[in-house]
Amino acid sequence: MIQIFVQISRYLLIALMGLYTLNAVFLTTIEDTERRKAFVNRETFLMIMFDLLAFAVMFLQTGDITLLMIGGGLMIYTLLIQLLYRIIYRKASIALVNTMCMLLSVGFVIQSRLGTDTAFKQLIIVVFASLFCLIIPVFVRKVKVMRKMPLLYAVLGILLLMGVFVLGRVSGGANLSLNIGGISFQFSEFVKITFVFFIAGMLQKDTGFKQVCIVTVLAAIHVLILVVSKDLGAALIYFVAYIVMVCVATRQPGYAVVGLGGMSAASVLAYKLFAHVRVRVQVWQDPFADYEGTGYQVVQALFGVCAGGWFGTGLFAGHPEMIPVALEDFTFAAICEELGIIFGILLIFLCMSMYLQIVMISTKLSNAFYRLVAIGLGTEYAFQVFLTIGGNTKFIPMTGITLPLVSYGGSSIMCTLIMLAIIQGLYMIREDEDEDRALLEEIIRRQNQKEQEMERRQRQRRASGAFGTRMLRSPGRQDNAGTHILRKRDEEAAPGTHILRQPAKSPEDGTMVSIGQRRPQKNVNKDAATASDYKKTANPEERLRELQKLSKLSAAESENVDLDDLSKKLEDEAEKSLNY
Q1: HEC readout, 449-507
Q2: N or C: lower Cβ tally within 10 Å for the chain?
Q3: How far apart are CA 477 and CA 484, in angstroms?
C-alpha cells in the first residue's frame, strides 16, 4: 500500500510543481493588485501542499520522526516569513518571497532524502539568516549614503578575496573558504554583493570611457585573485556580471563583444595554466574515458538523470546517494533521479521566473544605482543556475558551483538570502517611486483641471459681457408699498427664494430702479442697485464688475455662480420690465 502511495506521489509532486511554476510565470505578467493577491495566495497553498505530501511520503518510507520535524519546521518557516514580510514591509513583493520559499522547499526535500542531519543544520541556518535579512530592506530603502561609497566596496571585496587566498583552505584544487571559530566561510559568495555595489556606484553617473577603464581595472583585480585561487566558477560569475552591468549602464553593445572576446582568451589561458581545468575539460569531452577515476562524478550524475526518466523513481525509491557530492555540486542530478526530468525542467523555469521578477524590478527603477544593483544581482543568480545545471547535464564543464537555495551550503544560502533581501528593498523603493509618480500625476491633473476651469470661467465672463444686459428706461407704477416691482412668474421662483423689492425713486426720473433676482434667503441683499449703474461698455471685464455690482455679489460668492445664467436672468428681467 505504501509503495502504491509512493508511486502516485511522483505524479502529484510533478503536478503541484507544474501548477506552482505556471502560476509564478503568469504572475510576472499581471499588474492588477487584486489578481496578484489571488495568485500569491494560490502559490502559498500549492507550496504547503507540496511540503506536506513530500515529507509524508518520506516518513512513510522510513518512519524517521526527524523528517516530520524538518517538514513541520519548513512549513512554519514558510508561513512565518510571509507573515513577517506582510506586517513589517507592506510594500514587499510576497511573490518573490514565495518563489524563494518554494526553491527552499525543493532543496530541503532532496537534502532530507540524502541526510536529515545536513537538512536540519541547513534549516537552522536559513531561519537565522532570514531573521537577520529582515533588517536589510529598510537599510537599503533608507540609507542613501550607500550609493556614495563605490571605492569602499571595491577595497573591501579585494581584501576579503586576498584573505581567502592567503589563509584559506584548499578544496577540490581551489582556495575556497576560510575557517573562523570552527565555522567555514566562503567569502567569494559575499564579495559577489560588494562587487555589484562597487560597479553600480562607479557607473551611476559617469559612463564615459575613462570611468569604464577604472571600473575594468578594479574588476579585473577581483577576477584575477579568484583565478589565482583557482575558483574559476566564481571568477566566471563576476566577469559576466561585470559585462552585463557595463553594457546596461553605457548602452553600448561593443563592450559586450570585447568582453566575450576577453573571456574566451582567458578561458584558453586558464586551460594552459591550470591542470584541474584541463581535467574538467577532458571529463566534459568524454567522461567515460576514465569512468572509475576523474569521470566518475559526471557519469554517475548522468546515470542518475537517466534512471529517473521523465517522472522519477519516487522519493526513497532511487539511489541518488551514489552520485558524488550530491548535496552540493550535483543536487540537480539527484532531483531528476527521484522526482523526474519533468520536475527538473519545471525547476529551471521556476528559477527563471525569479530572474524575471528581479529584471522587472530593475527596469522600473528610476535611480541608476538601484537599477544597476538589481540587474547585477539578478545576473549573478541566473548565471550561477546556468553553471550548475549545465555542469550536471554535461552541457558545459563542471565548475563546482552550487544551485542557489537548493544545494547544501551555509555561505551560499546566506549570500542568496541577503541578495533577495536587497532586491526586496529595491522593490519597495520602486513602490515608493510609483506612489510619488502617482501623486505628481494627480497634482498635475488637478492643476490642469483648475486651469481649465479658470479658462472656462473666463470665457463665460467674456460671453456674459458680450450679451450686455439691456436696462431700459420707462414710466414706473407704484404698488401699495410705494415700490416699483418687476413681475416674476411664480413658477420660476425656486423654493427658498424670493423676488427683491427695491425702493423706487421719483417717477420724474423716468428710470426703472428695481430688478427681480432669485437668491437664497440667507444671501438676500436689501440694498438697492440702480439700473443706471449698469451700462454697456466695450470691456468685458468691466461688464463683469458691473454685473457683480448690480447683483451685489461678493468675489467669493461670484465664484459659485453660473455667470451665463446670471446674465440671462438679468436680461430677462429687463425684457419683462419693458413688457410690464
Answers
A1: HHHHHHHHHHHHHHHHHHHCCCCCCCCCCECCCCEECCCCCHHHCCCCEECCCEECCCH
A2: N
A3: 6
Q: Name the CA radius of gyration of the chain, rounded.
A: 39
State percent of the chain over pLDDT 90. 41
CA 386/CA 395 separation, integer angstroms: 10
In 3D, which of 572, 479, 561, 472 has the Cα closest to residue 519? 561
State the pLDDT at residue 546. 55
Is pLDDT at 128 greater than 90 in this prediction? yes
How far apart CA 260 and CA 188 sit, in angstroms, is: 22
- How far, CA to CA in Å, does 426 sit from each of 94, 99, 197, 360? 14, 17, 13, 11
pLDDT tens digits, 12-67: 999 999 999 999 989 888 888 888 899 999 999 999 999 999 999 999 888 889 99
Q: How many CB atoms lie within 10 A of CB 108?
A: 26
Amino acid at 474: S
Q: DSSP letter string over 27-41? A: HTT---HHHHHHHHH
204-245 pLDDT, tens digit per residue, is 988 888 999 999 999 999 999 988 888 888 899 999 999 999
**Rounded to whole angstroms, how far apart are CA atoms 188 and 192?**
6
Return d(Cα 358, Cα 550) in angstroms, integer.
67
Q: What average pLDDT score do residues 310-328 get?
A: 89
Pairing of strands 497-498, 174-180: unpaired
pLDDT at 492 over 60: no
Place of cell 542531519: 117
525's CB contacts (< 8 A; 6+ apart) are 500, 519, 552
Which among 467, 549, 472, 479 is positioned nearest to 513, based on CA atoms?
A: 472
Q: What's the whole-number mean pLDDT along residues 119-127?
A: 93
Q: How far is CA 397 from the centre of its chain?
A: 35
How many angstroms separate the CA atoms of 401 and 399, rounded?
Answer: 6
Q: What is the 3-state secondary structure (H, E, C) of 114-183?
A: HCHHHHHHHHHHHHHHHHHHCCHHHHHHHCHHHHHCHHHHHHHHHHHHHHHHHHCEEECCEEEEEEECCE
